[in-house]
Amino acid sequence: MFKLYKNETVYQVFIRNYTKEGSISAFIKKLDYIQSLGVSYIQLLPVHPIGKIGRKGSYGSPYSIQDYLAISADLGNFDDFALLIKEAHQRNLKIIMDMVFNHTSKDSLLLKEHPDYYLHNQKGDFFCKCADWSDVYDLDHNNPALEEYLCNVLLKYVNLGVDGFRFDVASLIKPSFFKMSKERIMKINPDILYIAEAVDAGFINYMRSQGFAAYSNQELAASGIDVLYHYSSWHWLKKFLADKTNSNLEEYKAAFTVETSSINNNALIMRAIENHDYPRLASYSKNDSFTRNLLAFSFFTKGLAFIYGGEECKDTKTCPLFEKEPINLTIHDQDYFSFVKELISLKKKELSVDLMISNMEDSSPYSMVVTNYFSNKEPLIGIFNLKEENNLISSSRLTDGNYLDLLTHKEYLIKNHSVLVDRPLFLEKKN
Question: Which residues contact 412 (CB under 8 A, 6 or more apart)?
Answer without folding.
Answer: 402, 403, 404, 405, 419, 425, 427
